[in-house]
Q: What sequence folds into this?
């Protein structure tokens, strides 16, 4: 019987983008938009930029949104599509 290989966890890559940096979007629907970086996912190579790539999400009534309804949230974009304008 063949031996099972242990699945390797991907190693995080270093990028020149950090949380809090001001960036400009270089490609896509949000091209030339600017905003601050909220979070960086170094394993997947994605960043969440404040006010960019907004998606709508339908929320059920709960304690967090007591009224429920449609909420706009920021979706991550690929790190190659942003350029640092002002590093913090």
A:
């Amino acid at each position: 019987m063949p031996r099972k290989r242990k699945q390797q966890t991907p190693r995080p890559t270093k990028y020149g983008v950090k949380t809090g940096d001001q960036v400009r979007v270089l490609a896509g629907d949000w091209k030339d938009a600017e905003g601050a970086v909220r979070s960086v996912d170094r394993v997947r190579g994605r960043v969440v930029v404040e006010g960019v790539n907004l998606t709508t999400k339908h929320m059920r009534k709960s304690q967090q949104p007591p009224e429920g309804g449609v909420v706009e949230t920021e979706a991550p974009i690929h790190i190659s599509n942003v350029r640092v304008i002002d590093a913090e």
